Amino acid sequence: MKTDRMMSIIIVLLERKRTSAQDLADMFEVSLRTIYRDIDAIDLAGIPIRTIPGVGGGIEIMPNYKLNHNVFSTSDLSTILTGLSSVSDMTAKDTLTNVLTKVKSLIPPDKEQDIILQTQHIHIDLSSWFGNRNVQSYLEMIKEAIELQKLLTFTYHDRFGNSTQRTVEPYQLVLKGNRWYWHGYCLGRKDYRVFRLSRLSDLRMTSMSFVRRDYSQERLDVSTVVDSPNETVTLRIQQSLMDRVMDYCSFEAFTEIDDSYYRVEFPFMENDYYYNILLSFGDKSECLAPAHVRQGLRARIQRVADLYK
């Protein structure tokens, strides 16, 4: 991947001092054009690169620029390793292996044990307990399509159950909350769209390339794929249900009724998704208000009961 290759180029330049673009292209099995693009990106990132023409020339990091083991503090390195390790859980096993190895090589021997201990303080596991088993393979395919600038085709299922065939230019992957999304230009809609990975099926990377648009990686608006609660309902729940309910609201929303029950102001929106959350609490929860939500729950419970007559 591009990030892995760029970090490798930096390591090579630090070790060899100067090397040719052709040697780098051969080393990483990419074109000269790709190497020059990477070099420009490294330079823009703040590491000054210069090109020396003629015999004995090549590409090098400016001599007055120093990058050594002391650049990163113990906290810096442990944070980098924690982040890279969590991302590697959701990618191909060898995708970030080289990056992790090279970052670890920056650890001074006298700080190694301290950094390992700090890294173990936090473990970020981005993989889901259950759900769409295609998510990880889809992540890899979308990442590859973004790098190679290849069109993606797939069937998309919206929150209302409607299915459409899409052909999209992929631009960015987004992890928001505990869900993966990606941003791309939909050729059918002739506009940018946000897609939730779990709603994709039959994802394919085509052989058709696209010319990258003037895309701005700004904060994405995912309101088209996520419903946000706009009211609250009052629940009476058993104490044993607190752990689950606190996945949706803070402890400040709870008021103790007695040793066994709590009253909760629960976030809600008038749609099937939120009704299904309330129904999932079973007989350990009762909706006290408002009346229309109680009626909505009663109607849904009756329809389920009718199925088992």
Q: How does this model look, in words?
A:
This protein is an alpha+beta fold and 309 residues long. It is 36% helix and 26% strand. It is built from 10 helices and 12 strands. A hairpin with a 5-residue loop joins strand 4 (150-157) and strand 5. Helix 1 (2-16) packs across helix 3. It is elongated. The termini are far apart.
Secondary structure elements and their pairing?
Layout: H1 2-16, E1 18-19, H2 21-28, H3 32-44, E2 49-52, E3 58-61, H4 74-88, H5 97-105, H6 112-119, H7 135-148, E4 150-157, E5 163-176, E6 179-186, E7 191-196, E8 200-209, E9 231-238, H8 242-245, E10 254-256, E11 261-268, H9 272-280, E12 285-289, H10 291-307
Antiparallel strand pairs: 1-3, 2-3, 4-5, 4-8, 5-6, 6-7, 9-11, 9-12, 10-11
Helix pairs in contact: 1-3, 2-3, 4-5, 4-6
Which keywords apply here?
elongated; single chain; 10 helices; alpha+beta; 309 residues
Instruction: Write down the Rg.
Output: 26 Å
* Major sheet size, sense and barrel closure: 5 strands, antiparallel
Count of alpha and pi helical runs: 10
What is the first-to-last residue Cα distance?
Answer: 57 Å
Order of neighbouring strands in the sheet with most strands = 7-6-5-4-8
Structural category: alpha+beta
Helix content: 25-40%
Could you spell the SSE succession in H and E letters? HEHHEEHHHHEEEEEEHEEHEH
Low-confidence stretches: none
Molecular shape: elongated
The amount of beta strand, in percent, is 25-35%
Average pLDDT reading: 80
Query: What is the tally of beta strands?
Result: 12
